């Protein structure tokens, strides 16, 4: 099987490429990535030189480039490529619409023309918006995105539905909860707080810190995607989550305790506009239909993740010393 993975140089994409080649060593993977600020070839340095792995730098919205790649033969597409950070979408929504909506549509169009057997769209639980009260999102929950990021992902998600209904393109969509693990860019909560704590820098908690996210270890997300890629039913949506709801303050405390750092590093700062209060995912459909289960308890995944950032300081120091500093100043200086 030959798979075109897009966004494979980012956090989840790079974990997925490594995972899929580990469990299916005979597969061929082409990784198409634009290498934006979030893409990093060091994430896949261990795969360089492998015969069945190829990296191509380019934009998923580039129809000419896609034409050339699909003409070489592609059995399945796994679309991770996206602008993925909510705070950046609030600052400058335009890129999010270009990549997440128009880019996905260009990819769907190429997949349609070349009749690929499978198109897996990596959507997100953020398309459901914010949960009020008890319960969890099911695949039937209404879409109610609240940020430019989640609105762009919801648009892409609906375009996938339209390509299935209108053109019979065998599209499957997954909506996963918050991932954490190795190679996550240190703009997101967990790697930001781990690396700030290691440098004895403040941990900027938005608002009261009682916002809730449902966390999944990235390898468990990858195993779910492997199941859906092979056995998911075309036209279906599968929620993916690991039943690990935590407030942001609980996450902060876990990190401080594991690193033996002082709670005095915590700073409550101005809240994120339109901040979703709570996400929680009901993943019973993928568990019942496809027999998938998450395998990593939250405390084990967090211990492994913190250990990974401790062992890989050159990886994140390099990121944090570059253009990231400018971003950090802009985003947090007057917060
Ligand atoms: P990321 O920001 O770490 O990686 C995104 C990758 O896409 C980068 O390598 C970047 O260079 C690439 N990219 C961006 N624009 C591109 C373009 N126009 N053409 C080609 N490549 C481009 O993101 P992530 O956290 O790994 O998320 C991957 C996907 O999973 C996204 O679609 C995101 O919406 C979705 N998702 C993320 C989470 C999470 O918790 N991180 C949860 C659910 C779903
Ligand atoms: O739910 C899936 C989504 O999870 C993905 O679709 C997104 O791509 C991914 O970025 C993530 O979105 P969140 O907005 O939930 O993740 P983030 O790490 O940015 O924030 C997690 C929580 O932590 C959220 O409530 C905001 C808060 N936060 C975040 C940062 C960066 C802080 O309190 N301080 C911070 O500095």
Give a description of the structure.
The chain has 335 residues and is of the alpha/beta class. The protein has a single domain (2-332), classed as 3-Layer(aba) Sandwich (Rossmann fold), CATH 3.40.50.720. The chain is 42% helix and 17% strand. The longest helix has 20 residues, at 94-113. It is globular and about 55 Å long. The termini are far apart.
Topology:
Elements: E1 2-6, H1 11-23, E2 28-33, E3 53-57, H2 63-71, E4 76-79, H3 86-91, H4 94-113, E5 118-124, H5 148-167, E6 171-176, E7 178-180, H6 189-198, E8 203-206, E9 212-217, H7 218-231, E10 237-240, E11 245-247, H8 248-258, E12 266-269, H9 284-290, H10 298-311, H11 313-321, H12 324-332
Parallel strand pairs: 1-2, 1-4, 2-3, 4-5, 5-6, 6-10, 7-9, 8-12
Antiparallel strand pairs: 9-11
Helix pairs in contact: 1-7, 2-4, 4-5, 6-8
Bound molecules: nicotinamide-adenine-dinucleotide and 2'deoxy-thymidine-5'-diphospho-alpha-D-glucose (DAU).
Number of helical regions:
12
- The first-to-last residue Cα distance is 49 Å
Integer average pLDDT: 98
Helix share, percent? 40-55%
Strand order of the largest sheet: 3-2-1-4-5-6-10
CATH class: Alpha Beta
Short description:
It is built from twelve helices and twelve strands. It is an alpha/beta fold and 335 residues long.
């Amino acid at each position: 099987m030959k798979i075109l993975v897009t966004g494979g140089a980012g956090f989840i994409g790079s974990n997925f490429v490594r995972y899929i080649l580990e469990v299916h060593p005979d597969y061929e993977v082409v990784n198409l990535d634009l290498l934006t600020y979030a893409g990093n070839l060091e994430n896949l340095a261990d795969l360089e030189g492998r015969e069945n792995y190829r990296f191509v730098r380019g934009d998923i919205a580039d129809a000419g480039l896609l034409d050339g790649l699909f003409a070489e033969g592609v059995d399945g597409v796994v679309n991770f490529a996206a602008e993925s950070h909510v705070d950046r979408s609030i600052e400058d929504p335009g890129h999010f619409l270009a990549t997440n909506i128009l880019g996905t549509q260009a990819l769907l169009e190429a997949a349609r023309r070349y009749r690929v057997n499978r198109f897996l769209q990596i959507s997100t639980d953020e398309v459901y918006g914010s949960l009020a009260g008890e319960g969890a999102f099911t695949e039937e929950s209404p879409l109610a995105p609240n940020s430019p990021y989640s609105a762009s992902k919801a648009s892409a998600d609906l375009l996938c539905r339209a390509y299935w209904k209108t053109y019979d393109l065998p599209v499957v969509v997954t909506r996963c909860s918050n991932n954490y693990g190795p190679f996550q860019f240190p703009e997101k909560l967990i790697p930001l707080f781990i690396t700030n704590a290691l440098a004895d820098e403040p941990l900027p908690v938005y608002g009261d810190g009682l916002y809730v996210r449902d966390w999944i270890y990235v390898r468990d997300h990858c195993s779910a995607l492997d199941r859906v890629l092979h056995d998911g039913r075309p036209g279906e949506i599968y929620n993916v989550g690991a039943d690990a709801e935590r407030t942001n303050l609980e996450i902060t405390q876990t990190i401080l305790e594991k690193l033996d750092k002082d709670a005095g590093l915590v700073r409550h700062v101005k809240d994120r506009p339109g901040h979703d209060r709570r996400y929680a995912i009901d993943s019973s459909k993928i568990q019942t239909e496809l027999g998938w289960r998450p395998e990593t308890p939250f405390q084990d995944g967090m211990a492994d993740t913190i250990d990974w950032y401790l062992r890989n300081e050159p990886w994140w120091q390099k990121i944090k010393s570059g253009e990231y500093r400018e971003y950090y100043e802009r985003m947090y200086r007057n917060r």
